[in-house]
């Protein structure tokens, strides 16, 4: 079969047949059956399919299949004009806000891009300028960037991380004296990882420090991740390299102190220059340990023998002061994705189906603005008061609405 014949057969497939495979690729858990993104994407794809079939829109809308054809819409029917019409359909729904229209279209556009990669479509028609032209202008609210952890979400995530760490530490510290050394090391490694994750979650949840100020950025050597020498647990502060390109002190509120102190005691970093949140990636650590010990004059067979004495290379790195790199911001997102899924937090957000790092910062901003006003919140968030007022203007609007309601009750009453 030549390529043109194969392409032609692909184009004749009803495009709805691709939905399940796409959703599995985007879903969470075994078989790709879970996740909020999958659920939301499935809803929007179903709406798009109904519209394409002529079942959703104005009464005179008959869909994208030619009138003389009695079949389901196929990939052959899709081009940029179809996506332009769908964008116009979404924009014409007066019940949808501007940013909601943009969000709904993004779900369809993401599927279109996937179809190109999978060979169903020849081009990403949904991203062409003519297709996107009917979409409303961005109203500046950018819902995908505005996730804020609620009090309930913050509590659920921190409690889950705390319980995991407590259980792992208790398991390690209560092992019988005759426990096999490698089993003891495995228990310590598990406890260290859980304690690291707990400390990271609490720092992101309560300090409002930007994740890029806390962890390593592979593209910026100045951002190598916070080290133990930059944290004063007793003093309740942490030095971070701020977004404004200078070092500054950030506060460590009470909820953060205990997780950090417990974690440091368990880790016992060989020097204060160790990263607070080191990577636990086995391949990275294996290469690092081998290279560092070789640079110190160790022979390959001696290195192999030394590594064989440890259940994990991280534990050897601790004993030999082979300093690992900090996790990256992407690593933090992976940790939060895993923890969010593990504790089954209810998250309804168009872009993130987990509690993203910036949501912790924004959630603390909400708390501070409501409790102490914009001036105090701006200082804690390391932002100008003007910017904080702009980003949290919905709080002031709600409060003014309460004032107006009270005034109406007094006057009209």
Automatic annotation (TrEMBL):
A matching Pfam family: Phage_int_SAM_5
Ranges where the Core-binding (CB) domain occurs: 10-116
Nucleotidyltransferase as UniProt keyword: no
Full protein name: Phage integrase SAM-like domain-containing protein
Keywords in alphabetical order: DNA integration, DNA recombination, DNA-binding
Provenance organism: Natrinema soli
Gene Ontology terms for molecular function: DNA binding
Electron transport as UniProt keyword: no
Gene Ontology process terms (BP): DNA integration; DNA recombination
Domain of life: Archaea
